[in-house]
Amino acid sequence: MIAELREAVGMTHPFRDEELPWPELLRAQAEQPFDADPARSLLDHSDCPTEFRNAVLHSPASLGTSGSWMEQRLAAGALTVLDVAAAPCTPAPAAVRIITEHAARTPGFLHAPAARTLIRRVRTRRDHADAWVVAVRLLP
After folding, report:
1. Alpha-carbon radius of gyration of the chain
2. Among 24, 9, 94, which residue's Cα sits nearest to residue 55?
């Protein structure tokens, strides 16, 4: 299965109802991150464990069109703004755009626990220009 995933191109949700060997997939992801298509398909699996999701989101490998995938997962509650902000696979400007668009569509966003945590993190990094950009974008 790992070899098939490594060779897959244009894969879209091929494992919907299958039970997957998550420990093997997690080890394979740690050894060599999956390309964007198989990674997104695995992330969208209903049984995708948090450990695998975090391994993919915190790997340096790009998810390609991760913006739209992250927007969908954020809207569905499968990711938090902290996941988006901390994911190295998404460039900072894209993460800020995704979070601010989500904030605009979500009533009471600034009162959500994840948003409050993100704001606290920004406050502790006031000496970094990127933190100021995020702070300004979060203002109502």
Report:
1. 16
2. 24
pTM (2 d.p.):
0.61
Buried-exposed string 49-70: b where 16+ CB fall within 10 A, e elsewhere: eeebbebbbebeeebeebbebb
Structure-token pair, residue 79 = 């990711």
Considering the domain boundaries, does residue 67 fall inside one? no
C-alpha pair distances (Å), 120 with each of 82, 96, 123, 137: 11, 16, 5, 14
What domain range is 40 assigned to? Answer: 1-61
40 sits in which H/E element: helix 36-43
In our burial notation (b when 16+ CB lie closer than 10 A, e otherwise), range 107-116 reads: eebeeeebbe
Please say whether the beta carbons of 67 and 95 come within 8 A: no
Task: Write the pLDDT tens digit of every residue in 62-96.
Answer: 665 455 777 777 888 878 887 877 777 667 677 77
Q: Per residue in 14-44, pLDDT tens?
A: 666 788 999 999 999 999 988 878 888 888 8
Query: What's the structural domain count of the chain?
Result: 2
